[in-house]
Write a structure and sequence with these properties.
This protein has a domain of 52 residues. The chain is mainly α. The protein starts with a helix and ends in an 8-residue tail after the last helix. The chain is 65% helix and 0% strand. The longest helix has 17 residues. The radius of gyration is 20 Å and the shape is elongated.
Length: 82
């Protein structure tokens, strides 16, 4: 009984440690603030291009949201397309 228990624990530990190895969500880097994106137009546009290219995975990414909010604020509240 103790060998089966130890085996189950070993399998659980191995499975949980490998779960992060297969995360293929694109990395958008450290989270930048809306104010940062307002001051860095080129980086904002590059991030928005990346977000537009993969909206299924990146729509709710903090950098995509912040870059989008900065673009809206920069356009004085005019609607913008993602």
């Amino acid at each position: 009984m103790t060998i089966a228990c130890a085996r189950n624990i070993a399998v659980a530990v191995l499975a949980s440690s490998l779960s992060g190895c297969f995360d293929d969500t694109p990395d958008t880097g450290p989270v930048k603030t809306v104010d940062w994106y307002k001051q860095h137009e080129a980086e904002r546009e590059a991030m928005l291009d990346k977000c537009r290219n993969n909206p299924g995975e990146l729509k709710d990414d903090p950098n995509c949201v912040n870059a989008h909010e900065a673009k809206q604020a920069s356009s004085f509240g005019e609607p913008t397309d993602w």
